[in-house]
Amino acid sequence: MNASLRALALAAVLLGPAAVRSAEPAQAPAPPPTARDLSPRLDAVEAGLLGVEESLHFVETQFTQRAEPSDDDALARRFSDGEIHYLLGDWPAASVLFYDLVSDPRFRPHPRYPDALFYLADSLLEQRNDIGARLYLRELLALPPTSGHYREALSRYLTVAGRLNYFEGVEAYVAQARALSGGQLSPEIAYVHAKWLFRRTDLSPADRIAQARAAFTPLAQAPNGAFRLQAAYHLGVLSVQEGDLPAAITRFQQLATPPSAQAAQAAPGRTGPRRSAPTPEEEARRVRELALMSLGRLLYETGRFDDALDRYGQVPRDSESFPDSLYESAWVHVRRGHYQQAKNAIDILLLVAPDSQLAAEGRILQGNLLQKLRRYDEAIDTYTQVIDTFRPPREQVDALLSSHSDPVAYFDRLLVRADGPLDMRTVLPHLVLKYATTQREVADAVRTVEDIDSGRRGRSEAAVIAQRILHALDTRGLETFPELQEANTRADAVDTALTQAEAELVRVETLAMQAVLTPAELARLTEAQHARAALERRFSALPTSLKTLEDRRERMQRRVDALDREAHRLDFELQSLNAIAASIRKWVEDSRPYRQTPSDEEREFLVQLQAEVQTLKDLKAELTATRARLADERNAVDTTLAGERAIRTAYADSLRREYAILREAEPRADAEVLATLRRTQGVRGRLDGLRERVTTARNVVRERLERRGRVIREKVVAEQQLLERYEAEVATVSGDARQLVGRIAYDSIRRVRQQFYDLVLKADVGVVDVAFNEKQDKTTAIQTLSTQKDEALRELDAEFQDVLSEVKE
């Protein structure tokens, strides 16, 4: 009877009070399950533990029990990765990896340190960063010559020095190269050495010419030398500097052969350290064009005008020197007195290069030629066009310079600003800006400002990246290390599966002991079961296998991808708006000659347009930051969901409370129940062992996380200190550039203003000359008519003299 009551109470707990009310008093409750009934469920738990143990074994063997690479192994692996990127031609990735290596003090004693310096320098060369490449090549050359790349690095350093026109210490490096190569320099180094001698200023002209000729002659005489053509051209220039024009003409005539013949003579293959260097055919074509121009000038100077015209006519139409050849051939025609042919050459120049600075001088010459041809109306129109083109911007520059008491400081404030250089197109007239930026000094000044601004932006971006890394280490932890994140995620899945196995054990034990529990114990058990039921739905959603992990990863990736697609769409819209702004600006510039818009209104409009462009830049920066955060989220799809571990812990605590209640009733169990409990305890022992292994694996992951995080944090902090020094250096350089950049810009604008003044003055003089010549022609015509009248009267007098005599008589 007591057993029946306990069974009824257990049914009330498990099925609810309605089941008790509906139970027939006359019917006996269902008997409790026997050990045989519960055995299949325990078999299923044991089988499940086999799969869980296999997953845990994978975590241990692939992650936690695998020895971490030592510092030397990590450095060697990073070097190997950089070398692979270098051999694949991925120069940016290679330069980043090798920069990280060479800046690591632990790598300096490594035997591959010189090779890393060489690969870094060559990667920078491929990205046209000659200054950076020179820095690391010089560092490599300061080491003992043990690297297999030492000789190649020496050749590259001297080639870069020649390209940068930085020849300090070149003589010592040349001597070192000669010693390494047995007294014979390679063509690349010999050419750099010859150019250094050609540009020396510490020697007398005679000594410099003699030494440079001695250095260039072997290169020019090499039948298939890579620098034969360049050396021969320099020998011609040396003859000009020496005053031996016939010898120079002979040299340049040898170079002015058809490009196909020169290309056949040029050495094939790589001509320098940069794989993007001009091909031998391109180099031969460039030297031939320079030789043709030099020949034309020398033949002009020696009075061989027909030959000069012939050489100018051989300059290809697609050459950069073609407009110069047209202008200079026009002057040859002028010297010969062929004004119509000279005008034809200028007409062609104005067609092929209407925006070049030669075009302005060409129009002045065109007006002079029209005067010579007595086409005065056309000459007046030509001069007037020059005046209308250059007088307004000259007056605007005059007004701009006169409106500031210190123009140098004004231009300095425009070009050197903390928030980047101002767009000069909103300040200077378009034509003035075009003429100013073509001058080398201004181009160098603008490049200096851009470099300073680029350095400032780079430092700011690096500081932001460093802060993001530290923030990720503080807040995201495992997401920073995908390998550790994978190990932790798999360990969590194993822990969840173990907790589910434990839940099944508690269910089996509850069924086995349902006839043993007292009503008080049943009430406590019911309360614990209700607490666990509240967590059941959330706990059951936790991943327990690789498949469930992949399903969760796909769901999260789909959500992140949807947001990223929307961000990409917004990025496309911003690009479209930027394109619209650029097209508006181009329309303003292109339509300026045809519009009557006041300059103040146009300047105000351009300032507003620049403000809109800045707004677009700000939006672009925000969108870029958003997409970066999305990329972080995409990389973090394996991260444990918020509260996941807390759910598992709360669920396990509920199971332990239920198990504690069952353990209190265990002494009252009969032999069959005890047999079932002994089996569950054996399974639980295996489960506890697996859980200890999971805890050990987590501890290993946590330890490695702390160690790796500490190493990276130290590196980032060191980089932040470097960035602070870089910021100070950029500020120093910016301070040094102050006034200097403004002075260069001011001087350039003044020169452009003077150039415009001279053009307008020449045009004004041309107009006066046309009026004077036209008046002179009319005066001459009147005088001619008067002379003809007098002669006609004298003829009439002579013819009618007899008649007049008779009349008088």
Describe the structure.
- This protein has 809 residues and is mostly helical.
- Helices cover 79% and strands 0% of the residues.
- The protein has helices spanning 2-15, 17-22, 35-64, 71-87, 91-102, 113-126, 130-141, 150-164, 170-180, 187-198, 205-221, 228-242, 245-255, 259-265, 280-301, 305-313, 322-336, 339-352, 357-372, 376-402, 407-415, 430-437, 440-475, 482-512, 519-540, 546-590, 599-635, 644-665, 671-737, 740-799, 801-808.
Quick gist of this model?
The protein is mainly α. Helix content is 79%, strand content 0%.
Please tally the β strands and state the result: 0
List low-pLDDT spans: 1-26, 261-275, 417-423, 637-642
- Taken from the alpha-carbon principal axes, the silhouette is elongated
Distance from first to last alpha carbon? 192 Å
The biggest beta sheet reads: none
DSSP summary: helix tally: 31
- Rounded to the nearest angstrom, the radius of gyration is 45 Å
Bin the strand percentage.
under 5%
> What structural class do helix, strand and pairing data support?
mainly alpha
The average pLDDT is 80
Helix fraction by DSSP (H/I, runs of at least 4)? over 70%
